[in-house]
């Protein structure tokens, strides 16, 4: 098994991701239970947790677990390049669709990953994320809009006082008194003043004689 990197990865996936027992793993892969136990123990000695980073390939995993079987690859020095920000080119819909495919009966995670051009470790990471509630169906992660009710603000302005035009005390040029005398009719206009009243009385007395 140490010479088969893909088989090493498959055994670890069945153990850690599928939580299968050693006998069931042995029945599916043909690897003895002793070899499976030895591989799992070796993994815990080299690595701290599962799943591994998506950058680990089958060959890198096998080289880390069995360094004596795989000679170190020659180091090639390349000129330094300006680092570009890494972008996640996998949409949540893509991740969800692939995870759902792996849940179908008889589905092979490694085969689904290869058919979609991704590392199978990355797909196992998405499955692990989905089981912990970190990967939701498309549409459920969108923010829902809350209804907003607009209430008009009360008008606190004090209405301007209505200006009532002042009445101008004008003396109407109207008839104040009309006195019919034998000699004619006496019409008095304007304000009835004491002097005008005396004149009226005097004329009335004169007309009575």
Automatic annotation (TrEMBL):
For this chain's UniProt record, which GO biological process terms are given?
DNA transposition
Task: Write down the SUPFAM superfamilies for this protein, in alphabetical order.
Answer: Homeodomain-like
InterPro entries associated with the record:
Homeodomain-like_sf (IPR009057), Transposase_8 (IPR002514)
Molecular function per GO:
DNA binding; transposase activity
Which NCBIfam families has this protein been placed in?
Answer: IS66_access_TnpA, IS66_ISRel24_TnpA
Record's family? Belongs to the transposase 8 family.
**The protein's name in its UniProt record:** Transposase
Native organism: Salmonella enterica subsp. enterica serovar Kentucky
């Amino acid at each position: 098994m140490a010479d088969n990197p893909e088989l090493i990865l498959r055994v670890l996936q069945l153990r850690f991701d599928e939580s299968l027992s050693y006998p069931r793993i042995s029945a599916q892969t043909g690897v003895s239970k002793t070899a499976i136990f030895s591989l799992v123990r070796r993994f815990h000695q080299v690595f701290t947790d599962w799943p591994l980073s998506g950058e680990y390939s089958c060959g890198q995993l096998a080289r880390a677990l069995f360094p004596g079987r795989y000679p170190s690859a020659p180091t090639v020095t390349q000129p330094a390049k300006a680092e570009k920000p890494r972008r996640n080119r996998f949409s949540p819909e893509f991740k969800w669709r692939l995870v759902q495919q792996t849940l179908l009966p008889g589905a092979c995670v490694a085969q689904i990953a290869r058919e979609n051009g991704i590392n199978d470790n990355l797909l196992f990471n998405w499955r692990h994320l989905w089981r912990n509630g970190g990967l939701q169906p498309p549409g459920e992660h969108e923010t829902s809009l809350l209804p907003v009710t607009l209430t008009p603000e009360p008008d606190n302005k004090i209405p301007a006082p209505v200006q009532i035009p002042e009445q101008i005390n004008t003396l109407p040029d109207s008839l104040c008194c009309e006195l019919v005398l034998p000699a004619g009719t006496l019409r008095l206009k304007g304000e009835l003043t004491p002097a005008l009243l005396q004149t009226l009385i005097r004329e009335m007395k004169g007309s009575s004689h």
